[in-house]
Amino acid sequence: MIKFLTIFTLIFLMVQNAHADGKQLSNYCQLALDIGAGIDKDKIESMHAGYCIGFIGGITDLNTIIKAGSGTGLFCIPTDIGVEDKIKTVVSYIETNTKSQSEPNAGAALAAFIKAYPC
Questions:
Q1: Which end of the chain is more exposed for a tag (fewer CB within 10 A), N or C?
Q2: How far apart are CA 108 and CA 102, in angstroms?
Q3: Model's pTM, two decimal places?
């Protein structure tokens, strides 16, 4: 049952975010990093930064649920890694793996975490 729910959730995330690709996620996440560095952004850019932070949190929360149900997650982020470093991981991966720029944002973020934090 857990495997079915996991697969369903991943497919749902990718379909729901099919309009948002890796490049857009990277752009939104770069805004979040800029704001964290003290660079002022307008309201729309701030909302986009919030989207990134929430999206990254959702992906990592999903992994926690998968790990709780199956005993192992898709990726294993050390507990001392903060939100900023998670965002940097995703941005760096998307920028260096150009194929991920045109993939759905959920797939790009998952690939970034799987590569950076294997179990």
A1: N
A2: 9
A3: 0.81
